[in-house]
Amino acid sequence: MQPAQKLLGADDVRRAITRIAHEIVERNRGVEDLVLVGLRTRGVPLAHRLQRTILECEGLPVPFGELDVTLYRDDLQSTALRALQSTQIPVDISGRRVILVDDVLYTGRTVRAALDALIDLGRPRGIQLVCLVDRGHRELPIRPDYVGKNLPTAPEDTVKVRLLETDGVDEVVLLSPAGAGARAEAGRD
Amino acid sequence: MIEQRPAPYTDVAPSAAVSAAAGGGPGRRRRHVLDLDDYAPAEIEEVLSTAEAMRGILARPIKKVPTLRGRTVVTLFYEASTRTRVSFEMAAKALGADTVNISASGSSVEKGESLLDTVRTLRALGADTVVMRHKSAGAPYLVASEINASVINAGDGWHAHPSQALLDLFTVRSHLGRLDGLKVVLLGDVLHSRVARSNLWGFTHMGAQVVLCGPPTLLPPASFGCDGLPWPATVEYRVDRALEGADVVMALRLQTERQAAGLLPSVREYVHQYGLTEERLAMAKPGALVMHPGPMNEGIEIDTAVARGVQSVIEEQVTNGVAVRMALLYLLSGLSADQARGA
After folding, report:
1. How many domains does chain A have?
2. The predicted structure's pLDDT at residue A130
3. Which end of chain B is more exposed for a tag (fewer CB within 10 A), N or C?
4. Residue A174 placed within a domain
5. Which of residues 74-133 of B touch A (CB under 8 A)?
6. Does residue B254 contact residue B297 with C-beta atoms inside 8 Å?
7. How confident is the model at residue A118 (pLDDT cuts 50, 70, 90)?
8. Has residue B12 got a pLDDT over 50?
9. What is the pLDDT of residue A178?
10. Quick one: pLDDT band at residue B279, thresholds 50, 70, 90?
11. In which order are the strands placed within the sheet that holds A146-150?
12. What residue ranges do the domains of chain B occupy?
């Protein structure tokens, strides 16, 4: 495997999150009715950081939840079984604006599953999508509302977001082909 | 895609099977659930944590996910059942599967169709998973070796009832926070109890100490009793000694027909010696959990006041049955990392 190419460093990640937090507040004219929902696994710490940043600048806590979309995926019959994690959203999402947070936006299939999962939980007033990295190659008509960084990639590439909470370091790296191990690890989320 | 496999076991170390579940390692996943004797602690842990997520789904307004859409789960019951059959059906439906229920009466079994022919017919009609109960121990193993579908043992003779044991483990852990180091007393008719046998494996795999208590005629004979068996359980004939320091007391159903077989002097005698009363429960640890796999004979193996008392989690066992069976159906439907690469 070729050495991993670093696309974003810790400072880039921090700045992107700070900017997105401000964009969320600006676009929604405040934080009333908002709820942040992180997609397992790495959307969760990202959503948490957005919550902290919004709290710092607006002084108001936005409710924060975690969503596991495994049971809604469309590739369960063709990929290895995933361990289920719990879904916890502390408020009723009906009538609220949900800010869905994921690390990498790629085919859009994970987000499709997340939309189905959210709608089973209630009838939100709206759903907006945050991703730290948009790497293109969408297979479904889904677009993000807030993007940390647009990164053109080849389909064979793997984009890996690493976060302090889950991986001990904040960075985004590009793993180019030939790394079979990396490929298996990649998933399409 | 589904390959024919005679053995119900994974052919790799269970830890590898579990890491496959996490999306990583090699190996195949278990295709059948026949008993807990060959489960590794990590595999039981996987079922329990998956059941925890499933319980979250059952708490929602819309208790349904599309995971098993297009799959068919058949319940094939040669013996009567309410809770097991209904909870498997509800579990399958909550995961979006189609369900078909067959009981021996009213089916071709009455015309003399053999078990294997019945199951082959079900497979030919498109069954992906067969949940079966049969009066003969080992029947699900025979079926698992013959047909190209997943088999879940919902009770075979006196032998095993793994989904019941898993829901018992789940219930105990959600109350006491752990299984390791607990003292669990299985009280009553252990000899005829498939629930006791599966629970024995489940609890000991998870590090609990199991004590079997009952009249000598209703415990496994000494020749294949616990001293000679690979069961790391102890036998205690006296209730007071068995219950001392117990964290969990599970009363087992006294099958009243046993009296006719001469195994008991009388039911009254049994109640007097072994019935779980409030007085006896007080010998266990304060707050010890009271369990019963059902159906109960209230006033015989368990006193009504105990069965409905504050320490009883009997109804919760039934409720948790759905989440645990959803977990089993989900885990059986999955592929290992190796299978996924080949797919």
Report:
1. 1
2. 97
3. N
4. no
5. 95
6. yes
7. very high
8. no
9. 62
10. very high
11. A64-67, A34-39, A97-105, A126-134, A146-150
12. 14-160+321-338, 162-307
ipTM of the prediction? 0.82
Structural contact between residues B171 and B92, judged by C-beta atoms closer than 8 angstroms: no
Mark yes or no for CB contact B66/A187 under 8 Å: no
Same fold, B14-160+321-338 and B162-307: yes
Q: Is residue A166 part of a domain?
A: no
Domain membership flag for residue A184: no
Tokens of B255: 């099958």
What class, spelled out in words, does domain B162-307 have in CATH? alpha beta
Mean pLDDT of all residues in B133-148: 94
CB contact under 8 A, B23 and A187: yes
pLDDT for position A188:
46
Q: What stretches of B261-343 show up as alpha helix (H) in DSSP?
A: 267-274, 278-281, 304-307, 314-333, 337-342
Residue of B190, B246, B195 lying closest to B213 (CA atoms):
B190
H helices then E strands: how many in chain A?
A: 5, 8
Which ranges of chain B would DSSP assign to H, the alpha helix? Answer: 14-21, 41-58, 83-94, 115-124, 139-146, 162-176, 194-205, 239-243, 257-260, 267-274, 278-281, 304-307, 314-333, 337-342
Host domain of residue A74: 12-153
Residue ranges in B34-82 assigned as alpha helix (H): 41-58
Distance CA B42, CA A180 (A): 27
What's the pLDDT at B263? Answer: 87
> Among A73, A67, A54, which Cα is nearest to A93's?
A67
Q: Determine, for residues A120 and B64 on separate chains, whether the beta-carbon distance falls below 8 Å.
A: yes
Enclosing H/E stretch for A99: strand A97-105
Cα B168–B170–B175 angle (5° rounding)? 100
Q: Among residues A133, A154, A126, A129, which one has the least CA distance to residue A141? A: A129
> Does the pLDDT at position B2 exceed 80?
no
The answer to whether B7 contacts chain A (CB < 8 Å) is no
Average pLDDT, chain B: 87
Fold of B14-160+321-338: Rossmann fold (3.40.50)
% of chain B with per-residue pLDDT over 90: 70
Q: A80–B334: do the CB atoms touch at under 8 Å?
A: yes
Mean of pLDDT values over A161-173: 94
Residue A5 lies in a domain: no
For β-strands A64-67 and A158-162, DSSP reports them as unpaired
Q: Name the helix (H) or strand (E) containing A8.
A: strand A5-8
Q: Mind listing the pLDDT tens digit for each residue in A87-108?
A: 899 999 999 999 999 999 999 9
